[in-house]
Amino acid sequence: MRLGSNQPQVSAQLRRLRALTGDALLVRAGNAMTPTETAMQLLGPATTLLREADRLFGAHAKQRSFDAAATEATFRIAASDYLDPLFLPELVAHVKRLAPQVRLELLPLTGDYDYPKRLAAGEVDLVVGNWLRPPGELHLGRLISDEVVCMVGDSYPSRGRWTTERYLAAEHVAPMPFHAQSPGVVDDHLASLGLARNVVVRSAHFGLIPTMVAQTMLVLTTGRLFCSRYVDALPVRILRCPIPFPALSYYQLWHDVTHASAPAKWLREQVREVARNLAGHGMLKRPGA
Hints:
By secondary structure, the chain is an alpha/beta fold. The protein is built from 10 helices and 12 strands.
């Protein structure tokens, strides 16, 4: 009962120990069992071995349980700035409420940031961004699917139909390409249709683009979640794209290095929770005009 086992299993374990030591270890003494001299000699070393094993595997067991309120862990997250601008602030506030002593490092996910290598080296815990085809060698969790829309300034001409021809001929602003081999999700899709738009401004500072749009005749094509945050703050409006685009899918990516880590699992749960809450509080708005 103390071993949490039954008689046949204990007998089998005792046979294996006898085979290893070449000694009976336990012999009958009346109605009881008594250890042999060899067994008594092994008792001290065995106790030491078990104590060290408990230190080793007991620490591992503790690692699998994570106390967010007491942890002083540092989490490193590389994130795309194409996300809803409220996502990272909400994530920081949410994490700090649950884990007040935690440290967070938010890193930019740029074209020259080798995130698969950084994840494999344990230099970053999590990567959040959007890909048409996420890297197959990494673990991934889908966070949000977003409709692709156009954002224009309030002064953008509204006469006439918003046609494919008019869309392609307009002056567009776009982020810098994420990879040298690819101009980006929007332009990749247009190229697959044999189309190309007129990109006249490319910016490495995605968060500044809405202000550019508000002051010019430029057209931004990106996710509705991003655009909707600026409609009340800037003189801009959202238009439905005349060309159907596949939904933008945002993922969190991580490596086998942190897959079983209790702190990393907890972090991934918080990212998923924040994404779910934002989507449930009006982020996924109905398409506009």
